[in-house]
Design brief:
The protein has 1 helix and 3 strands; from the N terminus they run βββα. It is an alpha+beta fold. A 3-stranded antiparallel beta sheet has the order 1-2-3, with no helix packed on it. The protein is flat, with a radius of gyration of 15 Å. The termini are far apart. The relative contact order is 0.14.
Amino acid sequence: KEGFKISGRHPESNLVEIIELDTEVHPFFIATQAHPEFKSRLTMPSPLFLGLIEAAKKKKNSRSKSMWQK
């Protein structure tokens, strides 16, 4: 109801593994018990890292545009 989402559960134990906040609450918030850094490579980054970079680019672009608008 307030933007908190459980987006991943362990398939066998049903324990919560991933949580997120809606982008209306925060531009990029995700918490996970997984370790994507262990499998991520420069040529094949984890989707989690790609999502973070994309959110940062959008935030930067929106700030740059609003800075020049008056």
